[in-house]
Amino acid sequence: MAEDAPNAAAEGGQPAPPEGSADAAPSATAGAKAAEALLPSLSIWPPSQRTRDAVVRRLVQTLAAPSVLSQRYGAVPEPEAERAAAAVEAEAFAAASKSAAAESPASIEEGIEVLQAYSKEVSRRLLELAKTRSAAATAPAEGSVQEAEDSSATAPAAEGSVQEAEDSSATAPAAEEAAVKEE
């Protein structure tokens, strides 16, 4: 023990108690608390702003760049995708935060559940956005198709008018011939 004392003094600490002594347990607990104080706390919820920004960037990529979603529902121009992605993320974060505030995640497991709810909410809202945007884009095209169908429905009537005009012109010479014969 005499040999441990100079090393402990040089390190600025106290010599370690022998393993079998009663002082060993409090020292281990103090060491664990000191280690916890040095380590950053692991917090699952809420995500950092850096993480939220990464989610928005990924949503923009999904909307604007070739992806399964953009191939199915159409790509979104990047400026519009940035605004929509930020709105989707903010709404999903607010919804998940509201549920988290009610439950107040105290453990890592509860934080993971809230994070999963946030992820599902982002996905659901992104899909809704893509579907409504696609439906809005196809609605005017369908209106154009409907107008074309309406005009083609009136086309036979117009063709009938042309036919009637042709018939009247065909009967006009006959009427003229009849008028000439009567004279």
UniProtKB/TrEMBL annotation:
Main location group: cytoplasm
Organism, scientific name: Zea mays
Give the span(s) annotated as Disordered. 1-32, 131-183
Q: Give me the Gene Ontology terms describing cellular component.
A: cytoplasm; nucleus
Q: Where is the composition biased (Low complexity)?
A: 132-141, 168-177
Pfam families for the chain:
WPP
Its recorded name reads WPP domain-containing protein
Residues in WPP domain copies: 41-138
Q: Where is the protein found, in the record's own terms?
A: Cytoplasm; Nucleus
Looking at the record's lineage, which domain of life comes first? Eukaryota
Instruction: Please provide the record's keywords in A-Z order.
Output: Cytoplasm, Nucleus
A biological-process GO annotation:
mitotic cell cycle
